[in-house]
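re the bet — no i am not wrong, look at it urself. input seq straight from the record:
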Amino acid sequence: MRWISSILSGAIDIRQARIKALQAAEQNAYVGVAAGDERVTEARAALRDAADTLRSVSRGHSRQVRLYCRLFRYDLEAAASALIRLHNMTGYHGYSSEARKLVLDDIFVSLGARGHLTAERDQGKSKRRWSAKDG
């Protein structure tokens, strides 16, 4: 019984962290230098908080919860890293929309929210080729 309660508790934490991360990524992916200092600060804080939440859930739960993530193909660590990449892009004009979209796609794929992605983006053929030079 304790094992099942551990999984359910962890699953709820994972789902909440996943939703928070997806919302933060979608709302703040394209915040650039023209957005203003206050908006950039808010966007960076939301992305950082979402990444911190994913990492704490990933590292703070039992093997059963990690098995749950594996079952649903959630890679919380990869999603957290992509959120930090997006955080670092926020407020700078040196990154193109395409570069930001690739990082956003990484987040979607890592968190199992790939239903809306094209086959090419879902399979990762165009992923991880972003850089400041793309801007």
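see?? The chain has a mean pLDDT of 81. told u. also The chain has one domain: 2-134. so pay up
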